[in-house]
Amino acid sequence: MRLYTRTGDSGQTSVKGGRVRKDDIRVETYGTIDELNSFVGQAAAVALREQKLAGLVAELLEIQQELFDCGSDLAFADPAGKEYKLDGEPAVRLEGWIDAHIAAAPEVTRFILPGGSEVSALLHVCRTVCRRAERLIVTLAGETEINHDVLVYMNRLSDYFFAVARSANAALDVPDVEYVRSAEVFRKKSK
Predict the structure, then answer these.
(1) Of 183, 126, 182, 130, which Cα lies nearest the Cα of 152?
(2) SS (H, E, C) 123-191
(3) Which pTM was predicted?
């Protein structure tokens, strides 16, 4: 197989159902999801070093598969009548994972600085790239029909990355660092 095709030398690329400029919002959107997927892979590779994070690695590998589904669903030049790969189930599953990771970390009332352990820092990078991808999806949805389940999933996924970054620090006995000028922005759990 030859990797290079030369078909993109004029600044266009193929999408499902046609060709578009490489700076098209659709390409920018699924390209950002691809970037996120690479950071998720890096976070999983770092987490592999820690026995305590074996469950996290399995979750991240599942998320990588779903990110490919998201990119595929957004690659349709004309999404009308297409069968999408992603449905609402993965977002619901993420909610369960989020709840479990929140329960595994100390309560937080203020903003925290991204970081702590290496894996937590990488998960915060994932969170911010995920938020950027979500913003691009909203822009794309303003221009054309998309699979709405992708938007819901990405919204849930950024919350997941915040929760799991904190639980990874907790599992590794690395405290989160609060933003010192933060007001109390998160409500305390009522008992």
Answers:
(1) 130
(2) HHHHHHHHHHHHHHHHHHHHHCCCCHHHHHHHHHHHHHHHHHHHHHHHHCCCCCEECCCCCCCCCCCCC
(3) 0.90
Assigned CATH for 20-178 = 1.20.1200.10
Strand, coil or helix: 41: helix
Per-residue pLDDT of the chain (191 residues; tens, 9 = 90+): 777 777 666 776 666 666 665 677 888 999 999 999 999 999 999 999 999 999 999 999 999 999 999 999 998 877 666 789 999 999 999 999 999 999 999 998 899 999 999 999 999 999 999 999 999 999 999 999 899 999 999 999 999 999 999 999 999 999 999 999 988 888 766 55
Structural contact between residues 77 and 20, judged by C-beta atoms closer than 8 angstroms: yes
Cα–Cα dist 188/66, whole Å? 33
One-letter amino acid of 172: L
| DSSP 3-state of 15 | strand
